[in-house]
Amino acid sequence: MNIIVTSLFVDDQDKALKFYSETLGFVKKHDVPMGEFRWITLVSPENENGTELLLEPNNHPAAKEYQQKIFAEGIPATMFGVADVQTEFERLMQQGVNFSIEPTKMGETTIAVFDDTCGNFIQIAQQ
């Protein structure tokens, strides 16, 4: 069994698509109209056949409440692996990304956490 799609609630699909593709560098794989919203998935440019990240609209009240509550607590909605957290931190800072946690060593792992501008904190980790 493999994880083929994982969802991330976003408050604006267009803004999220721009941030995740232009700022973070993910590649759009699907963008299919689904009524009022779209099925938008992105993949890592290093593995275009890998796990897809679905930019899921948070229009359901439970989704919106969940997203707002974990954001208010500073809890990352998901985690992405990077080769070098410090390098990625510096690259994203130059693009105006706001970090709530700068690169921090946690045992054998280094992490940082940033605001995706779409209602989520995202953690990056170097193992």
TrEMBL record:
Domain VOC, first and last residues per copy: 1-127
Tell me where on the tree of life, at the top rank, the source sits. Answer: Bacteria
Give the CDD domains listed for this entry: VOC_like
Q: What is this protein called?
A: VOC family protein
Protein's organism? Planococcus shixiaomingii
